[in-house]
TrEMBL record:
Region Disordered, annotated ranges: 273-299
Source organism: Fukomys damarensis (Damaraland mole rat)
Gene Ontology molecular function: threonine-type endopeptidase activity
Lineage, highest ranks first: Eukaryota, Metazoa, Chordata, Craniata, Vertebrata
Protein name: Proteasome subunit beta
Subcellular location, record wording: Cytoplasm; Nucleus
Function: Component of the proteasome, a multicatalytic proteinase complex which is characterized by its ability to cleave peptides with Arg, Phe, Tyr, Leu, and Glu adjacent to the leaving group at neutral or slightly basic pH. The proteasome has an ATP-dependent proteolytic activity.
SUPFAM superfamilies hit by this protein: N-terminal nucleophile aminohydrolases (Ntn hydrolases)
Primary localization: cytoplasm
Record's keyword terms, sorted: Cytoplasm, Hydrolase, Nucleus, Protease, Proteasome, Threonine protease, Zymogen
Gene3D superfamilies, sorted: Glutamine Phosphoribosylpyrophosphate, subunit 1, domain 1
Length: 299
């Protein structure tokens, strides 16, 4: 039964809300419904992000930038893209911000109800399966949610990727968003399962910083989370510009040190001209030079 039938309530406004502009104020052609016109001809604003997560011996690392963008417009430079679900589970968010926030609230509610019924928190795999099943019903309705669920359950650290079309994958490394190709390049080079905690922190910061430098839709700061056996921990928030500058300075110093260590010593060879000695480096002999040292001719 409707509310007005129970409470004898009737709306004071018959028709559109008076707070909306009149039909002639909309910037659409005359005779067209504004919502239909914008749905068909309206621009699809490009949005992007850089989020990543990887599993290693000491837990799961989750990191993300903080820039929320709509096309060329930065909607929010300090948004939180890593959302806690409960004490031992959190997830990275990529896609439409409203969809991600809403579906994580739904997931929190469903996991809480299941924990009250069963007496224990569901596993990370159960949470990923539940979220995938709920979102798959809205396939084809322009829902955009891509998330990496990071948690620690009875089986240890676990990591799952879930997409709004129902896709559900388990793995050790996931990066989602427009900056993910650049982040994968850093992760594939430096990741190994037995890394230390500080190595994992450095790898996550470095991957997000390099991705934000190349991807125009990513930026702001780097939020870093660590999921341990005792629960998740918020590690740090680092400015990407300062972080990338420090990484560049460290790389240049490291390359200079390697260049000094690997500089070859000059080789003394006895030439055919008057038996003199002359120093040559490893690249000083021309490819077409047929003069061969006397010691080599005996071979």
């Amino acid at each position: 039964m409707a509310l007005q039938d129970v409470c004898k309530w009737q709306s004071h406004f018959q028709g559109p809300s008076p707070h909306l502009p009149q039909a002639g104020c909309w910037a659409v052609p005359r005779g067209c419904d504004p919502q239909s016109f914008l749905r068909i001809y309206g621009p699809r604003l490009a949005h992007g992000t850089t989020t990543l997560a990887f599993r290693f011996r000491h837990g799961v690392i989750a990191a993300a930038d903080t820039r929320s963008s709509c096309g060329s417009y930065v909607a929010c430079p300090t948004s939180l893209k890593v959302i806690p679900v409960h004490q031992h589970l959190l997830g990275t968010t990529s896609g439409t911000s409203a969809d991600c926030a809403m579906w994580y609230r739904v997931l929190q509610r469903e996991l809480r109800l299941r924990a009250l019924r069963e007496g224990q928190l569901p596993s990370v795999a159960s949470a990923a399966k539940l979220l995938s099943a709920m979102m798959s019903r809205y396939r084809g309705l322009d829902l955009c949610v891509a998330t990496a669920l990071c948690g620690w359950d009875r089986s240890g650290p676990a990591l799952f990727y879930v997409y709004s079309d129902g896709t559900r994958l388990q793995g050790d490394i996931f990066s989602v968003g427009s900056g993910s190709p650049y982040a994968y390049g850093v992760l594939d080079r430096g990741y190994h399962y037995d890394m230390t905690i500080q190595e994992a922190y450095t790898l996550a910061r470095c991957a997000v910083a390099h991705a934000t430098h190349r991807d125009a839709y990513s930026g702001g700061s780097v939020d870093l989370f660590h999921v341990r056996e005792s629960g998740w921990e918020y590690v740090s928030c680092s400015d990407v510009c300062v972080l990338y500058r420090e990484l560049q300075m460290f790389t240049e110093a490291e390359l200079e040190g390697e260049a000094h260590q690997t500089q070859p010593e000059p080789v003394i060879l006895r030439g055919a001209e008057e038996g003199g000695e002359f120093p040559v480096g490893p690249r000083e002999m021309a490819p077409g030079d047929s003069r061969i040292p006397a010691e080599t001719e005996t071979l």
